[in-house]
Design brief:
six-stranded mixed sheet, 48 helices, globular
Amino acid sequence: MYAQELVLKHRTQILHTLCSSGSAEHLEQVLDILLAQGELIWEDYQDIQVPGRALYTKARQLLDLVYTKGVDTCGLFLAALQQVLPEEQVGGLSFSGNCSNLQEKDAFQSTSAQTLLTQRPILVSKLQGCIDDALKALVTSGHFTSADCNEVLLPIYTPSQQARCLLDQVRSKGDMTVSVLLQFIQQQQDFESTSNQEKLTLPKEFVRYQKKLSSSLSAQSCFLSTYGGTSQMSLDDIYIEGQLELAHDCVDVHGPLSLEDIVGAEGTLNKEADTVLVSGEAGSGKSTLLQRLNLLWARGAALQNYLLVFPFTCRSLNSEQRELSVQELLFQHCCWPDREQEEIFQFILDHPHLILFSFDGLDELKQSFSDERRLCCPTQRAPVHILLFNLIQGSLMKGVRKVLTSRPEVVGPMLKKHLCKEVLLKGFSPSGINCFVRKHHNDPTVAAKVLESLRTNTALHGLCHSPVLCWIVSECHKELLGCGEGSPQTITDIYLMILQHFLQRKSSTKTTTIGFGWLQEHLETVRHLGQLAIEGIETTCYIFSGTHLEKCGVTEKDICFGFLIQSKDMSSARGKCYEFLHVTLQCFFAALNIVLSNDRSAIRKLFETKCMKETGQSNICFTACLPSSENPEVLKGETTAAETPNSQITASFVSGLLSQHHRGLWIQCCPSSVLEKRSRQVSRCLSKGMQKHFKSIPQPVEGEKKSMHAMPGFVWLIKCIYEMQESRIAKDAMNKLEVEHLKLTYCNIGPVECTALAYVLQHLRNPVGLQLDNNSVGDVGVEQLLPCMNICNSLYLRNNHITDEGICKLIAKGVQCGNFRKIALFNNNLTDACTHHFSYLLRTKQDFISLRLGNNNITAEGAKQLAEGLKLNHSLEFLGLWGNKIGDAGAVALAKALESSKTLVWMSLVGNGVGNVGACALANMVKNSPSLEELWLTENCITRPGVECLIQALEHNAHVKSIWLRNNDLSSEEVEEMTRCEPRLIF
């Protein structure tokens, strides 16, 4: 079959393969290759890569173009696909024998500009790791300005997109600029070549050990256990990368982080430290991420600058009673060398920068982090946790890269000072959910039905951002699709669904309705596993020996249900050991035990411990929950770092299990009067916890709004209230909250938390400003917040990964809400595609007063859209567009739209590439404005003529207090002269 016919036949499959991940990388790599081969001319490339155009539209246009160019071009296109796409994706496309050969071009063509095209794929690859250095070279040579650099370093670009943008910018500036860049790349290549010559010669025994370790890691990491060890999933088949980001703002890092960026230099805060922390909530995929890194290293696909990778889990380290040296820790817990142990370990000591250690689940370690006991000698024996703490702080094995994973609640300042950086794992993106479900189901029809179910249930869709919940929903698809109106809304609903799913796999009666027999039939199993779970949480035990199981009455039959899996972390010498499928499942069974037990004090202890810790009360119950760094008594082993977060999860499950919605499930297991009493007890605990938070709110400073800066414990209480699904409790709690501004910044709020917040906050009596800056709300989280928009007079969503899609839904709701008057969306992923929604908002709401869209990706076209709304708006007081790309054309459009504004008080166009044309248009606005007080034009391209226009405008307007002009294109002499002329200009 001709290549042209193949392109037509497989068009749908090719489109899906290029676009289904949501990333444009594969499409852009294909375009690079076709440019290099001369099959596309530059104009073809520009016609496809129109900014703002949807990915599928670009891919369709490329297919159309390739097809019209004929057989040869189609053959090269198919060859490019084979080169770019992973093997598993190419497998379904039978191209063999129809692909043309990709020809290598000469490294340097007759002109430098031609070289940029013919060597484009190679240049993109070489530039990705040194964008900043390349830009410095171009700025130093005088060929690039700061505005050019900002255009390349847009936050929404991946490293490869930054490289392409840089190549396009350089090409547009001519051969001299191209020559500077090519010279820089050559120098980098020469440096790398010199470095490669200095590579180590590895001893034969070391190489043999390296192969043994990689073989062992590959075998351990290639599968994920599912339930009961009865089935396994290939990690390759199921793995979807979660959302990774730095825990702190970093000017040198733009776009999403990759797996290898975790151990790379990107975002390093403390160059003296060797330890990276990957933190994320339970179920966010931390363990699977480390497993993926181990597998990629073992296969030679990643982390190849490390010769050895040693993985540990804190669960298995908990069970180590002996004192060990570092050498014994490595070889006994990871991989034993067949011979020459001393020589191999000495090589490790001599080359620490080539070694990587990973420790999964620091939050599950029995002991809390302490840096009080120092060790320096790697052959000295000590308790395992002492070795770990000294490795983290660098006293032992300085130079070895260490990667820890942990839930954020147990990571205190004492540990953080020893980190080189912290990376946050935020679970799945919306496209990640889509990919996971499709990977999980071989039948596309089933996958489509599950995804449709998620789309129609926004609360469930929000929950699926947690990978463990996404797996449960996918695994229990039959129960999900058969539940009709009773579709899950809460995390408790989902875990009850998997409880029913697992139990009924082995059930003698195939009852499908919750509350009719399936739980009663297997009540003994639930009680046994519940007892095991709660004893484990109380003693920070996650791996259970046969003795543990026997003590709690767990039988082989109980194990067969699949909630327990055989632990891979314990040696066979100790016999079979088991662990719960996931720590959240252990918490769920602990909650089941509390609901079904006769212990009247269990609920009070569970809730009051957490509440007292959050509100700062100090008694025995409270101090038992504090980490050791804050409570000296903990060093005696009286408590654990993991107690509080697992208590939180267990308490939220208890709240859900005792809700009215699930009350019928327990009727046959427990008297209704007891259930009612326990439910009231939980309600009282939640109410008491909320009241303590409210009492801690300070009185407002005179002239300021009364505000509450909520702590994570407040969010936990709200999640418990949501799990109970009783609006009365939410209403009672919110009736007592009297604030005008509610601040929930840096509280790890994602879509799940947004759902709970909206459920509870909609019952507030008076409107509030809701500040959710620096969380992970995202587009799905925005959708979850819509039910409480009526009580929001202002909404602050800085740095929350929100895109144009989320804005569409937010504005559609916002225009219907009478209280809604302010919004701030700094540092998100907005483009021109969202500006027509804001334009509609401005036209529709004539009481809207503040719009702040700083540091997004809005260009002149977006500014023109906003201007259309501003012309018809008579209320806006604050307009913030700093850090975008509106340029002169955008500034002119905005200035004209605001010429007649009688309300605008403050406006910021900082860092927008505004020059003299824009400055003169803004000067006319300044001249005529009766209300403007401040105009910010810092970090633009304004020169003397533009400033003179502003000076002339100020002569006609005494109302303006200041115009900020720092970091524009002015000499120090001009600055001094103009400051004397007009003191309201701030340079």
